[in-house]
């Protein structure tokens, strides 16, 4: 008679490899998360941090490495230096994001190079970003929100808007299109007008 352990492993093997738990947030949840971030002690900074991580699909290490010089306010552009051998690119900054950047920079009274700093005037750490995102998620009533969900949320949002796989690949800095394909494979718009 099979034990529970062996039955579970058989079930796991039978599952299609592309099936995984939902590890991204839809736009309504992103909106709730951003609104919750504004209500924190450092709401202007935290809101911008989460907005930029979502809009640009930034990893934690990429967002904490951002420098003020990477943002061109006059041209509404940001230079995103991708890690993990990713493709670094210049990306546009939307109007609401540009206003949020200006609000954050107007509050700064230092000449530090990093875009995001702590109240101790140091660059944010990985742990700080995890805390900021997790706390905003809890405040928004969302379960287990972590920073990498924002990157996935960006990919799925672009796929659901019908953006081309190669554009999403370059935008997220993926060298291998297989890393981008799951966003487009599960995009809801693919099934529109089938009936």
Describe the protein's architecture and organization:
Residues 20-195 form the Tyr recombinase domain. This is Tyrosine recombinase. There is one protein chain. The chain has helices at residues 4-14, 27-38, 43-56, 60-65, 95-107, 126-139, 147-160, 165-172, 178-185; strands spanning 71-72, 77-80, 89-92. The radius of gyration is 19 Å and the shape is globular. Helix 2 (27-38) packs across helix 6 (126-139), helix 3 packs across helix 7 (147-160) and helix 8 (165-172) crosses helix 9. With 195 residues, the protein is mainly α. The protein is built from 9 helices and 3 strands; from the N terminus they run ααααβββααααα.
SSE ordering: HHHHEEEHHHHH
**How many DSSP helices?**
9
List the uncertain runs.
1-20
Q: How is the biggest beta sheet arranged?
A: 3 strands, antiparallel
Largest sheet strand order: 1-2-3
- Into which percent range does the helicity of residues fall? 40-55%
C-alpha Rg, in Å? 19 Å
- N- and C-termini, Cα separation: 46 Å
Shape: globular
Sheet/helix structural class: mainly alpha
Portion in beta strands = 5-15%
Average pLDDT, to the nearest integer?
A: 86
- Total strands: 3
Family: Belongs to the 'phage' integrase family.
Protein name: Tyrosine recombinase
Domain Tyr recombinase: 20-195
GO molecular function: DNA binding
């Amino acid at each position: 008679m099979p034990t529970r352990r062996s039955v579970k492993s058989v079930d796991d093997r039978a599952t299609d490899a592309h099936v995984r738990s939902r590890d991204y947030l839809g736009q309504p949840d992103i909106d709730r998360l951003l609104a919750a971030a504004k209500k924190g002690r450092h709401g202007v900074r935290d809101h911008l941090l989460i907005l930029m991580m979502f809009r640009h699909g930034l990893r934690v290490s990429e967002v904490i490495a951002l420098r003020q010089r990477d943002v061109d306010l006059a041209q509404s552009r940001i230079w995103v230096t991708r890690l993990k051998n990713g493709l670094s690119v210049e990306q546009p900054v939307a109007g609401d994001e540009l206003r949020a950047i200006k609000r954050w920079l107007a509050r700064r009274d230092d000449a530090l190079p990093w875009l995001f700093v702590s109240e101790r005037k140091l660059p944010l750490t990985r742990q700080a970003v995890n805390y900021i995102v997790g706390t905003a998620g809890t405040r928004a009533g969302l379960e287990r929100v972590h920073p990498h969900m924002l990157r996935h949320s960006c990919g799925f949002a672009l796929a659901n808007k019908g953006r081309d796989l190669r554009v999403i690949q370059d935008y997220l800095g993926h060298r291998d299109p297989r890393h981008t394909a799951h966003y487009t494979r599960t995009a809801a718009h693919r099934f529109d007008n089938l009936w």
